[in-house]
Design goal:
This protein has 2 domains: about 30 residues, no CATH class; about 230 residues, Rossmann fold. About 30% of the residues lie in helices and about 25% in strands. About 40% of the residues are buried. It is built from 9 helices and 11 strands. By secondary structure, the chain is an alpha/beta fold. Helix 2 packs across helix 3. The radius of gyration is 19 Å and the shape is globular. Bound molecules: zinc ion. Zinc ion binds next to loops.
Length: about 270
């Protein structure tokens, strides 16, 4: 097992009862779905079950498939054989699944984690990664210099932690929303919608080697598709009652996908 003990950082070995144990006797049970909870703080974090299920349903409609395929291709073309890839903030495992199809022929070893237990539970059912864990991007249970590539799609990230776990020359692949992403949805929520702010792409310790934009129309054709999209975005928390009711009363929505894919190399 490559994931390490979150308490002492020691190597975890799996015993006959499937529990993961380090030499300092810290022990973590395997969940039924095969993941390990390596988050030290108790309680629930990250996306709740309702959001996870909305996203699973929306992504199952194929709306973000062009993005998932492109990310997987770029990852495949960047790594050598036998690479270790980390999907940091894997959600319910949609991008991990696409990634796994592309990189399996290269014999890649995939690690995936998310801070949301509900999300990891869904992800682990897909069995696309070699190891799944509940963990935080701010305290990744991995040794220094242990992975060749880190993937982060729309998930909070801590650049210093990413840098720590990557080998020299390793890649950090990130997808972020572009300026126009979901502008059609925002136009329904807000009286004066603003375009998304795209922050400076500089990250200390990394060299940006690729920046690619991907945009296409998203045509939602039912109230449930509109609802699923709304529920998987941060707007589900932030929107006023009126805005929320406006969106949930729609039975179609012309929208747009606008993504920016960034690939960094650790210098
Ligand atoms: Zn330990």
């Amino acid at each position: 097992m490559i994931f390490t003990c979150p308490v002492c950082g020691g190597k975890l070995n799996i015993d006959e009862s499937r529990a993961a144990k380090c030499d300092n006797r810290h022990s973590f049970d395997s969940a039924k779905q095969g993941y390990y909870n390596l988050l030290l703080s108790g309680g629930d974090h990250g996306d709740n079950k309702e959001m996870v299920l909305a996203r699973r349903s929306f992504l199952g409609g194929g709306f973000y498939e062009p993005l998932a395929k492109r990310i997987a291709e770029l990852c495949r073309d960047s790594i050598g054989n036998e690479a270790v890839i980390l999907d940091a903030g894997c959600g319910e495992g949609y991008y991990t699944e696409h990634l796994s199809k592309e990189v399996k022929p290269k014999n890649a070893y995939i690690l995936a984690f998310d801070i949301s237990r509900d999300a990891v539970r869904e992800a682990a059912k897909k069995r696309c990664a070699d190891e799944y864990a509940v963990a935080s991007s701010y305290h990744i249970p991995l040794p220094d210099f242990s992975v060749d590539m880190v993937l982060n799609t729309f998930s909070p990230q801590a650049p210093a932690e990413t840098l720590r776990v990557l080998r020299r020359g390793g890649f950090f692949v990130m997808a972020i929303p572009g300026e126009e992403h979901l502008f059609g949805l925002k136009s329904k929520i807000y009286d004066t919608p603003y375009k998304n702010e795209v922050k400076d792409t500089y990250i200390e310790g990394f060299e940006l080697i690729l920046r690619e934009e991907l945009r296409y129309p998203l045509a939602l054709r039912s109230a449930s598709e509109v609802r699923d999209l709304f529920m998987m975005t941060p707007y589900a928390y932030r929107t006023s009652k009126e805005g929320r009711e406006r969106v949930l009363s729609l039975d179609s929505l012309e929208c747009e996908a606008h993504f920016i894919i960034l690939i960094y190399k650790k210098v």
